[in-house]
Specification:
Length: about 300
């Protein structure tokens, strides 16, 4: 997922080709992360292209700030949730944009920092909040409060986990004995709940459970729906929206949202990607994190 501690932007060339950055253009990176895509957009739109970048994660934003400072006042960064994009853009006088990018999920920087609790490979607190300033509930708090049935549902719905019931039962059993507070504790518990013969070959046995919890902790699917609806209103006619997702549920939301806009009378967008653009074998080899990426895009009518 990381190469020497860096985050490699996924589908970078493809996203830039879709967004067609140009001199004087105005762009929004709604998930600026460590600024990889943002940097490419700024280079391609030199010398006068402008980019607004936002992220829920203040720590990622601080790193993006360092990386992008070379672009001076061509870049504006903002700590915020893209579900609130409309209000944030209004307040800051940002809109309209010629191109908007969403690169969903986590950056390698977040995954690699054990203290964030995203990784089942590293001992850390069971946190998983992208925005630790925002005051939302951590994964540990959720697992303490939710009923066995609710835990089963979230594992099934957001992790497509076949062994959801067994894992939920183990979680409830464990929390009666001692609080569930650490990533490795949860990963071991999941491994113990799933029969050995059913362990997936390609991924760690706890991957799906961790993913489901992360999606719930950060309310990722509802935020994506709001973010997309806000974003399309901020585009100029001919402006483009480009979304890179890493999860089938996210991709479904993106696909249906873009198609829904295209079916309106008059259509709000023209869909540019009948099928999603996916990474080449070469990109996946260089960056396994790209494996499940899908890019969809549309142009505002
Ligand atoms: C895959 S990373 C982006 C990487 C970036 N494109 C780059 O090249 O460095 C996704 C980023 O989106 C942020 N994010 C996820 N959900 C968000 C939301 N609802 N609002 C704002 N940022 C969000 C995460 O904190 C993370 O930094």
């Amino acid at each position: 997922m990381t190469v020497e501690g860096r985050h490699l932007p996924v589908l970078l060339e493809e996203a830039v080709a879709i967004l067609q950055p140009r001199t004087g253009g105005r762009y929004l990176d709604a998930t600026v992360g460590l600024g990889g895509h943002a940097e490419a957009l700024l280079i391609e739109s030199a010398p006068t292209g402008h980019l607004c970048g936002m992220d829920r994660d203040v720590e990622a934003l601080a790193l993006a700030k360092g990386r992008l400072s070379q672009f001076g006042d061509r870049i504006e960064l903002f700590h915020g949730d893209f579900a609130m994009l409309g209000a944030i853009a209004d307040e800051n006088g940002w809109a309209p944009f010629d191109g908007i990018l969403f690169d969903l999920g986590l950056s390698s920087f977040q995954l690699d920092d054990a203290s964030r609790g995203f990784s089942f490979m590293k001992e850390g607190p069971l946190d998983m909040r992208m925005d630790r300033q925002g005051g939302g509930k951590s994964a540990a708090e959720l697992l303490t409060r939710l009923s066995e049935r609710e835990i089963t549902r979230l594992l099934q719905d957001y992790g497509e986990e076949r062994w959801a019931r067994r894992i939920a039962a183990r979680i409830v059993e464990e929390r009666r004995r001692q609080p569930l507070t650490s990533t490795v504790q949860l990963a071991r518990l999941v491994a113990g709940a799933v029969p050995r013969y059913a362990w997936p070959r390609q991924i760690h046995v706890a991957t799906r459970a961790f993913q489901a919890l992360r999606i719930t902790v950060n309310d990722e699917l509802a935020k994506l729906t709001h973010g997309l609806q806000n974003a399309v209103e901020l585009l100029v006619a001919g402006g483009r929206i480009c979304v890179i997702s890493f999860h089938s549920l996210e991709d479904r939301i993106v696909k249906e949202t873009l198609r829904g806009w295209a079916r309106l009378k008059p259509p709000r967008v023209h869909v540019l990607t009948k099928r999603p653009i996916i990474p080449t074998e070469r990109e996946i080899e260089a960056n396994p994190r790209a494996r499940s990426a899908k890019l969809r895009a549309a142009e505002r009518c």
